Amino acid sequence: MKNTLLLGTRKGLIAYRFKNDEWKIENISFEGVPVSIAYADPRNGTWWACQDHGHWGVKLQRSKDRGKTWEEVIAPAYPEGAEVKDGMPATTRYMWSMAHGGNKHLSRLWIGTDPGGLFVSEDEGNSFQLVESLWNHPTRKEGWFGGGRDLPGIHSIIVDPRNEDHIHIGISCAGVFETTDGGKNWAIRNKGLNAAFLPDPNAEVGHDPHIIVAAPSNPDALWQQNHCGIFRSTDGGQQWQEVSETGGPARFGFAMAVAHDNPDQAWVAPADSDEIRTAIKGSLFICRTDDGGKTWKQLRKGLPQENCFDITYRHALVSDGDAVAFGTTTGNLFFSCDRGDSWEVINNYLPMIYSVQFVD
Amino acid sequence: MAIVKFTYALKRFFPTLKETTTSGKTLRAVIEEMEARYPGVTRYVLDDQGRLRQHVNIFIDGAMIKDRNSLTDPFQENSEIYIMQALSGG
Questions:
Q1: Could you read off the pLDDT of A124-148 as tens digits, one per residue?
Q2: DSSP 8-state symbol, A182
Q3: Number of domains in chain A
Q4: Which residues of A touch B86 (CB under 8 A)?
Q5: Does A113 reside within a domain?
Q6: Dihedrals φ, ψ of A141, to 5°?
Q7: Structural domain of A155
């Protein structure tokens, strides 16, 4: 297990380190400033903080010394004249996902934003450019819309380690898009999804994948916690199958994680329905499948079972080896060293947690 | 020369920020002048398309500016230009 947990929270970036069998705070940065994504680049150990200053706009910070010092770099900005819709100028409203470009593109970084633009840096994050091919996709202006946020947003970026120009992204609301040429061309990969909220649930775009994750041991095994259920694909998103639990709670939620060594093992954090969005019947639990979504187990040991209102945001449930961690909207942070069979509390008094990452 | 004043909240990011005179004849020129003195400050005040950010206000002699997109509100040589943030959130 990696020994650091990096958190993006409503009130700053928080890093925990596991030492002598205990999680202890190593670093708190940007106290009071919302950090939508805290991200550590595993290639070089650089920490990134995607900030969402309410007044002053989004800002991007990086640290090369584990948060001791930070340097502000220019955040992704839309080129002059870019429009979300006709007559609505585009400005970066939120940074919602971040991913490194792989070991063949050592200087490359990706950032997904609201209002729907994907940005790439080819110089280690010193500057970011809008990926025009996706921004100019013929479906965007008429077929993409807000979900989770007021305008469309890119919350998932999955770079295939076998071919780092092969990338899937997830957009709420538009769905899954795939490029095989480093972002020059994009194909829609929504077959098999069900957008129950649309007049045509099988529409080509307009789907709401809350998060998309790929199995490290088989990057063609994709999973998504969607607004309308849990889906998986075994062929790189060409076709999706719904694997929600029939009659059970593994259905609605935001977050999802998949095991590093088993493409059939995955975790979700169920929430009580689209309409209510709290913990189900006041109790907190994680669901795990060990068989590719055929069956789901409820993992409750060590988690509060009454008077809970927590839900888990889309970037706040992660796994690494046997370790699983998740952080909630009411500032609870939980850890499991046995793939979720049992849980311990790391802290009950954190700010609202937006993102969690296991880091070296 | 007009005087530019800033909200204290910006000092967290620009510790040397202080009340300053400006020779700019338009609001945009004033902001460009401030950018030269405090590199990066424009991105805190204006968005990607050069519009005043939603939760930022500029007052000229106590009156809120009207043109938040093109920043064409006029001011006098002895005006006070005050850049502040909305009070919101929690």
A1: 999 999 999 999 999 999 999 998 8
A2: T
A3: 1
A4: 55
A5: yes
A6: -65, -35
A7: 76-209
Helices (H) and strands (E) in chain A, counts: 3, 30
CA distance B28 to B83: 13
Domain count across chain B: 1
Q: Is residue B90 part of a domain?
A: no
Structure-derived torsion over alpha carbons of residues A317, A319, A323, A329, reported in degrees to the nearest 10: -10
Domain region containing B18: 2-85
ipTM: 0.88
* Structure confidence by residue, pLDDT tens digits, A68-84: 999 999 999 999 999 99
CATH number, domain with residue A114 = 2.130.10.10
Cβ–Cβ below 8 Å for B53 and A75: no
- Verify whether the Cβ–Cβ distance B47 to A57 is below 8 Å: yes
Domain-located, residue B65: yes
Half-sphere exposure of residue A125: CA atoms within 13 angstroms, side-chain side: 26
Which of B11, B28, B49, B55 is the mutation pick for testing A, counting most A CBs within 10 A?
B49
B46: phi then psi, degrees, rounded to nearest 5: -115, 155
